[in-house]
Amino acid sequence: MMNSDKKFVNQSANFTQDNLTNYTSNTPINRSFGVALGRKYQLKDNTKWGFIGALRLENTYRQTQIDHSERGDFVENTSFRHAGSSDGVRVLKYNELTQYGFKNSGTTYKNKSALSGMFNGGVQLGGHRLTSRNIYVQMFTNNLTEISYFPFQGGFQEVIDGQPPVLRFTNFSEFQRLMQNKLEGRHRVNKNIETNWFLARTKLNRDIKDASQMDYLTKETSRGEYYNILDVDRRGFNTVRQYFDNQETDYNWGADISWKFKVGEFDNRIKQGILGHLNIIQIKMSRLVWVWQIRLMEQVAI
Amino acid sequence: MTIVPVSKLLNGSYYNTSEQGIGWFVFAFEGGDQFEAKAEKRAPFIMLDNKFNNWLRLVWGVRAENYKYTQISTQQGISVDRASLDSATQEELDALGEESWIYMPSFNLTISPTKSTNIRIAHSRSVLRPQFSERLQSVIYDPERNADIIGSPKGVKSSVTKNYDFKLEWYPSLGETVSAGVYYKDIDNPIESVNFSGLEGVSKITIINSIHAKYPNGVSKFLCFINSMNSVIKRSLQK
To answer: Does the predicted model carry a pTM greater than 0.90?
Structure first.
């Protein structure tokens, strides 16, 4: 996988917004607005029609406080030693649990904005009924997590010795569009025989435009000042941005017929039918990694 | 050494291909960057509803489900990045032994000793199909779990569940329910999430088929308005 120099610069130049810098703001309150309208019209000869429509806008915000996490490669802040083991100076008489004060802590900021609409309509002509149901949802979700953690690599001894934490930012933004259309019918052939059918199509598009992850290392200058640098080589690839375009289409169909009959005084019903479902998915993806030594990179990648 | 803020470093003016060059490197996926798949299902069914007399009703039937999953194309991971797991090939998926036809019988027997009480005994078989995201080989990092979330590396197959239900219901008045029940699920090939530690303690969470799971549980529901709650208590005190 050789990237030509020109191609490499061109693809990198597509990213003019860093999307990795973080800004502070206050959390707004959740808001939702909705409006709905429905009507039914009765015509002569047992004929009627009606519709219902609704529109809804929803904005939600949530924060999750991470007080301390030891998952994955976040170092634990306790140590346990069995009685009888040696700590280098003495042999322990009892089990020993030591707790340290440092924490791997941070916050997740989530916000979701959704606009949805619904329109259903139906008509009934005697024993025949035809209904159409339609739903449209457009949703934007953004999750940002920032966590300050001590890496597992050094163990807690390095933390106690004054190793500064790593800052990790993970940003995940997703655009979703869902469109669902359904047509269904019910036909009463006579008092005892009835048939139902439906056809439905659902189209879902999930577009994860720029899922990015970045680690900042804290370094100390010779004058005792701290500064942060982008981590590119500590644990493989910690500065990553990803793109997914997910197109999913669902077709559902079904039909059944039911027949009512009496045995003596009691009602019985038999129903038979078939249901069908076809689900097709197509996901396009790409993964970009922040590199600072291209020549080295190409050697590794081959 | 010059120190550049990240916002400047990434604004486009620093990209270059020198020996110490910086920029965004695209990881090529072997066999394309696209995952395409198709799942088809057909299910004929027959159902009978018999009211034998005033207090005994049986609803029963069978559903046969034909299922076919086809992987049209898939990306394959590469070895240098953390996205290094390969997707299952079609041969590996075929080797899982997914049954193309599954028969799902069910029955629901309702006994009504009085007009406002029901005893229900039910059994059914159901099938849970794996989702596309559970089959897709790509890495999504979950910061709250501090883990890379990956689809099943060698494919997963459908879980088949046998459900057993026993329920007591009482309707004191219109729209009010007091019910208690127990249910039991017997799941073949349940799809479960597992964590395996990779390089330097980094968690990777993927899914696998476990062999078997049993799941007993009890539920009770109490849906009453305060007024009728009073009458419920009064009635029970009178008895």
So the answer is: no
